[in-house]
Design brief:
The chain has 121 residues and is mainly α. The chain folds into 2 domains: 43 residues; 57 residues, no CATH class. It has 4 helices and 2 strands. The protein has a two-stranded parallel sheet with strand order 1-2.
Length: 121
């Protein structure tokens, strides 16, 4: 069971205990399942990522481990680097803020312009 589904089930249980009508909860569950299916289909397509990227993995990540992303480079068509950061776990920005900040600053300083589509152009 995914973390998102577990969280949703916990919300459902709390809502039932608070007296929310079952029909309303079932409609919400149907909406959740539809959204989850759409998200999974989009992820399964594994579209390529064309923006400059520096992927950071904590060497001591006990959640997924750095080896879990070792082959992700094939999904990137733009400049891509993968760095395994020593003395960091799953929460790398908090555990090794300098390595995180350096990667962000390196991306910002690149000659490749990054564009953000805001819909206001």
């Amino acid at each position: 069971m995914s973390r998102r589904l577990r969280a949703y089930v916990a919300i459902l249980v709390g809502a039932l205990a608070a007296g929310v009508p079952v029909a309303l909860l079932l409609r919400g569950l149907d909406n959740y399942i539809e959204r989850e299916a759409r998200d999974e289909a989009r992820l399964a397509a594994q579209p390529t990522i064309g923006v400059p990227t520096i992927a950071l993995d904590g060497a001591d990540d006990g959640v997924s481990g750095p080896e879990a992303s070792a082959r992700h480079g094939r999904h990137f068509t733009g400049p891509y680097q993968r760095r395994v950061v020593a003395n960091a776990g799953h929460n790398l920005p908090q555990e090794q803020p300098r390595a995180f900040a350096d990667a962000v600053l390196e991306l910002v300083a690149r000659d490749t312009p990054l564009t953000l589509k805001t819909g206001l152009e």
